[in-house]
Write a structure and sequence with these properties.
The protein is an alpha+beta fold. About 35% of the residues lie in helices and about 20% in strands. The chain has 4 helices and 4 strands, in the order αβββαβαα. The radius of gyration is 15 Å and the shape is globular. It starts with a helix and ends in an 8-residue tail after the last helix.
Length: about 100
């Protein structure tokens, strides 16, 4: 019961655009670093080990990733979550800047 409550308190919201990530990012935890890159439709999930499981559980259909630094599975998962939690929604960024989404590029 405690574990379920702790998990509910630690949920993160990840913005997705048409089955992929909105922008490139590097997640870091300890010596583990994970590069997360959006991919075109039809690319699939190009990821190794623990990152692949996280992406599939998240529902991402097209993404490219690369594990940089330590390949320890625990650190890789934490680095992936770090990167995903810092992911910004393009519509929110446009609203904060007072621009249209098309103007951000």
């Amino acid at each position: 019961k405690k574990a379920v409550e702790a998990a509910k308190n630690n949920l993160i919201r990840v913005p997705l655009i048409e089955g992929t990530l909105p922008h490139e990012l590097i997640g870091e935890f300890g010596a583990g670093r994970v590069l997360l890159k959006p991919a075109a439709e039809g690319t699939g999930v190009i990821a190794g080990g623990a990152v692949r499981l996280v992406m599939q559980a998240l529902g991402v259909h097209n993404v490219r990733t690369k594990i940089l630094g330590s390949s320890n599975a625990h650190n890789v998962v934490r680095a992936t979550f770090n990167g995903l939690s810092r992911m910004k929604d393009p519509m929110e960024v446009a609203r904060l800047r007072g621009k249209q989404v098309e103007e951000l590029a």
